[in-house]
Automatic annotation (TrEMBL):
CSPG repeats lie at residues 162-254. The keyword Metal-binding does not apply. Coiled coil: none annotated. Residues 1-19 form the signal peptide. PROSITE patterns: CSPG. This is Galectin. It comes from the Eukaryota. It holds the Pfam family Cadherin_3.
Amino acid sequence: MVAPALLPLSASLALVALQFVVDLSSESRHDVLPFVLLSGNRNLSFVFAYRHILVDQIPIFTRDDGDSLFRFHLKCVTDAALQIYVNDLPSLISSPSFCASHHLNELLVGPDDVDPNQLFTGCVRDVRLGSKVLLQRWCRGVDDGDSSPQADVPLSESSTGIQPLYLGEPVVVEEDGRVAIQWRNVYIFPEHNRFRIANSDIIFRVVDAPQYGNLLVNGSEVREFTYDQIIFKRLFYAHDGSETHEDSFDFQLEIKSSAISFPELKTKVYSIPVTIASKNDAPQLKYGTLGRVIQMANNAKWVVLRSRRTSMIVYHCLCAGSRLKFKVVLNHSRLLV
């Protein structure tokens, strides 16, 4: 299998533009992953779905039938907004991780630690950061099999240091639900295949378990798992149903290899955040900038019931063409809705 190409970006996207061309082969399936932008605390995955190109599941470009060539141009327009042109059509996403002027990031071309159905076949070519050529051409075919990398990368762009692990998207789960932990959430350095490190030799040991859920493999709680189980979506976070909005779990990483070592992993602890989406929660009113004030136009409300004994006033309100009934209670000088 043709190995991925990892290209360090020697300047921030806040200062210069990143440009390249993706040639999608006719054999490529839907939902393939040609490249990923890597930073120290977030990854941006570009997925070529059936009708759209998605960035972290957000559509940025609509594909037509037969489209196979895509020109990309990426540059930050503020310190928190990344502008992406695909075939000269712009879109904007929030991405402070890539737009801070002091952050240096990487472009991973042709990731192979993905579901086999997402494996990209085709070419990525003419990769430039500003006026600097990072990659002339990288290609992978359906029948490549085991072979050496087919990437023509200038030697001056080779990386001297290897970051063993990248944290990507937060884990997102519905309240009382469960979700698979995927490579999108945690990604091992792409060169590990070149060092003949098997995914099963990359071990995660939980040092601080999630507080509002469990990590499960085959339905059983685990405190240790492998990268192989992440790649094949066998590791799950299961929420306990509590009224919580966020969680996390911490782990240490061990990479078994005689070819390369990472001494810093003996003391380093990583944390994966978990975002819990509320389900069937009752609606809540929160104070606005004016504090405990309800503003309604005179012609948008009328009193239905007023009670001096309970200090309660019941209103009907016409909001956006629909009727909303609510009550306002004055209780010991406090306004309750």
